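Cross-posting from the chemistry board since nobody answered there.

I work mostly on the small-molecule side, so proteins are not my area. We synthesized pyridoxal-5'-phosphate and want a rough idea of how it might sit in this target. Sequence and SMILES are below. Is it possible to get a predicted 3D structure of the two together?
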Amino acid sequence: MPGTTRRPGFLPRAARYHGWMKEAQPSQLATRIVHHDYLPPADFVAPQPGVFKASTVIFPTVAAMRSREWKDKSGYTYGLHGTPTTFILEERLCTLEGGLQCLLVPSGLAAIANVALALLKPGDEVLIPDNAYGPNKDLANGELRRFGITHAFYDALDPADLAARITPATKLVWLEAAGSVTLEFPDLCEQVRICRARGVTTALDNTWGAGLAFSPFDLLGDGTQGEGTLGVDISAHALTKYPSGGGDVLMGSVITRDAGLHMKLKLTHMRLGLGVAGNDAEAVLRALPSIGLRYRAHDEAARQLARWMQQQPAVAQVLHPALEESPGHAHWKALCGAAQGGQGAAAGLFSVVFDARYTQQQVDAFCDGLRLFKLGYSWGGPMSLVVPYELPSMRSKAATHLQPGTLVRFSVGLEAVQDLRQDLLQAMDRAFAA
Ligand SMILES: *Cc1c(COP(=O)(O)O)cnc(C)c1O
């Protein structure tokens, strides 16, 4: 039988994991294929890490099974608790955002839910900016309310409004910079100072900044990371956007710089069964090295198009934090102005309010008439996208800093700006012709 002669590369270590090696080779092919004793040499080095996929993880002994710790990265216990592939991604994301601990979850929304469900109990209240990512508000209105957790929405542009809403019941404050869809830029530093002074945990939805526009755990950029450093407690990130960069992966992360807080989040993460697949982690690992280059390209193109849109006769207002006229521009400049060699950093998003003289039907026709900008949710991939929003239904109180009219959100991909401008022009000409 061929198996009786040990060939080079058959590691004795493998025998410990496949107990039958101590005895004789099983006689049946079906068994020998499953319990094969070859393990490749361990020192494979390549630019990209390997993709490990597992639900089951094999232990050498019962003692190891009983003693192995799943709460840190000293070993492997079960696919849900991590593989070499997910551990590597977690560590690289910590580097991106300046954190120390990271949890991977199946979507950006799962990151938001993980935070809320880990930190809140009946009787607690969570504060959410009125311009937050919509499903964050839906979670508060749905599951959290059902579990006896209350919420209130605050004005992201008015730190005094946030301060006034904090009560002894407030246990979590969500922050978002820039705001979803309307892209107002808040005074993040002041918001964090207010929450810190009141001892309330802060969680930032950091999808827009992506770890590139500013440092969530070191907002003043002094790099000390000590006691006096101003930063959020938690950064939740929809990796679905820029870290994935392809419009083809759903994933999220929850990053912290506090081991106790991380463990609280991790226990909930474990009990809810949140985990990610190896192939998805690999897709993000593959895209991560180019995130800075892509972010800058999306940013430059979006700024060019946003400025050009400001000059178009059909347009009443353009919302993009790097534009001087945009709500919260000074806060953006203070926080993100030094990034990217001093030109500042912003994601590839802007919104346009079309003049109120145009009907919703005309604005819909404009969106339908676009050829390169596709109708679709999400952002951060190579393809430019457009979504018309019915803003009044999304805000708890009217946003007086916005012009009346219909709002359309653009996410700029990696196409040539010239072609995108031409696309916008032809769609406006047809939809808004007098
Ligand atoms: C997309 C997005 C999310 C949710 O991410 P998913 O992976 O789609 O669940 C959360 N927050 C912001 C700001 C987002 O843009």
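Reply from a structural biologist on the board:
Welcome over. Reading the output above for you: DSSP finds 14 helices and twelve strands in the chain. The domain at 79-289 is CATH 3.40.640.10 (Aspartate Aminotransferase; domain 2). Happy to explain the token format if needed.
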